Amino acid sequence: MTRKMSRRRLLGQAVCAASAGIGLPMFISCRKDPISETGNANVASEEEDKTPGPNDQIGVGIIGCGRRNAQLQVGRGGQGKQPKCARIVAVADFNIKRAEQWGAKYECPAYQEYRELLDRKDVDVIIYATPEHWHYLPCIHAAQAGKDIYGEQPLSHTIREGRVMVDAVRKYNRVFQVGEQQRSHPAARKAAELVLNGRIGKVREVIGYNYPSPWECNFPGQPIPEELDWDRWCGPNKVVPYNTNLYLSRVPYERTKHWPNEAEENAVGPGWMSFRPYSGGELVNWGCHGLSMVQWVLQMDNSGPSEVWVEPADKLEPLVYNKPEKRDRGDAFTSKTTINYRFANDVVLKLNSTDKRLGGGATFIGDKGQITILRGKYECEPKGLDKDPLPADAIRLIESDNHMQNFFDCVESREEPIMNVESAHRVATLCHLGNIARRLGRPAKWDPEKEEFPGDDEANQYLDCPKRKGYELPKQV
Fold it and tell me: Most buried residue among 278, 340, 343, 422 by CB atoms closer than 10 A?
C-alpha cells in the first residue's frame, strides 16, 4: 500500500476480515509493518513501507464513546492481510470524560457536542453507537454534512423518525449501513436461500421469540457527574433526575478490556435499554436481529405486514419501576402477550416462543419441513434439507461475510450495503408495530406503503413520540 493509491481505494479496504455475527466487526488503523498472506512481516520496498499520509487515510468520526462503540474497536492488527487504513480523527460524547479518554488513546480531538465533529472536513465516515432516542438526529445531521454512516441498530426509536432518516440518507446520496450483523453471517445467508428456493415448500408460518416491551421508570435522583451533559443526554425527552441505572445501557454494565474504567457505582437495575421513552425495549433492541431474518426471507425489505394483533387481546398496562430492580420481573410481565403479524401473502408471523435461541432468528415452517435460523447457525427438520446444493439458477442474496467490510466496500463503490437504510427502517417498523399492538390490545390494520394505520387515530398517535423544543423532526431534510 502506497501513498499513490487513491483515497477511495483505501476506503474500500479499510477494515480487517473478521467473522461477522460471531466475532464483532472492527476497524484497524494504519500500520508500518506490511504483513504477508501467511501473517509474517514482508521485506518491503522503501515505498511500500511508508505509512499512508493523513491525506490518504480515511477519517472516521466516532459519536458515542461507550460500550458498543468500544466493541466496534479501532486499532487492531490485520489477520494475515496487507495493512488497511482507517484513522479515527475525532470523537464525541455527551460525557466529556469518556470522549477525552478516547481522544487520548487515538491522539485526536474530543468533543462534548457532536455537531462540532461533523463540521470537520477530515471526517469522511461517521460511526454512531448512541442510546436509541439519539439515533435520528446524528443520522440526519451526518447526512446533511455529507458523511457516510454506520449506525447501530435499531435504526430508529419511532416509525416517523425512521422515515425521515431514510429521506435524509437518500436526499444526500449517502451510504448507510445499520449494525444488524446477522445478515453478514454465511450460515444465515445459506438458510435464507434454502427457504427462498423452496426447500421447505411454501412458507405458511414463522415463529419468533416473544420479546419484552419497554417499561416505565421513576428512579430517585442521584448527583449528575460533572463530566456529563445530562440535559443533552435526555435529548427530545423531558429532563428527569439523573440515575446511573438509567444512564447506562444495561446493568450490570458490560465493560470491555479496552475501556475498563466506566463508572457503575450504585448500578443494580436494567439500564436505559429497557425503558420508554429512551428505548423500545428488547422487542426493538434484540428483536431487530431476529425480525431482520424474517423480513429478509419473506422479501419484505421494502414493505411490511398488513395487520398486527396480540393474544390475549388486552392492553399492556404500564409497569413502573420506582427503584432499580432485576430485569427478570419486567421481562415476564411485558412478554405475557404474544404478537401476531399477517403479511399480504397470508404468511403469519407469531412472536410466541420462549426459546431464547430465536433471539437472533426465527423458525420458518413450510408444507415440506422447517428451517430455524439461529445466531451463527441453522437447523433443518427433517434433517438433510440442506444436503443438496442449490441449482445454478437459484435465488441468491447479497454475499457478505463481514458487515463492516461490506459497508466500506460500498462507500467505495457507492452501491447499497447489505443492511441499507430502507431495509433497516422496515425491520425497525416491524418491531415498533409489535409494541404499538401491545399498547392497543386489539387488532390494527397497517398500510406499509403510506406507513399509517388507516382511519385509526388511536394507533397513529404512537407513530412518533413527543419531542422537546429544539429536538423536533425536521419538516424537510
Answer: 278
Region label for 145, one of left (φ > 0), alpha (ψ between -120 and 50) or beta (otherwise): alpha
pLDDT at 391 (0 to 100): 95
Q: How far apart are CA 266 and CA 126, in angstroms?
A: 33
Task: Give CA–CA dist 429/292, Å, rounded.
Answer: 11
Q: Mean pLDDT of residues grouped by 10 in the chain (477 residues)?
A: 34 34 36 31 38 67 83 40 64 96 94 98 95 98 98 97 98 96 95 98 97 92 96 98 89 49 56 93 94 97 97 92 76 88 96 92 97 96 95 94 87 93 98 98 98 98 97 93
Partnered with residue 208 across adjacent β-strands are 351
CA atoms of 320 and 274, how far apart (whole Å): 11
Distance CA 345, CA 62 (A): 42
What is the C-alpha to C-alpha distance for residues 150 and 174, in angstroms, rounded to an integer?
A: 10
DSSP annotation of 381 reads E
Phi and psi dihedrals of 339, rounded to 5?
Answer: -115, 140
CA–CA separation, 93 vs 103, rounded Å?
Answer: 11
Q: How far is CA 177 from the centre of its chain?
A: 9
Vertex 76 angle, CA 73 and 77, to 5° = 155
Query: pTM of this prediction?
Result: 0.86
Report helix, strand or coil for 84.
coil
* Burial of 470 from C-beta contacts in 10 A (0-12 / 13-18 / 19+): exposed
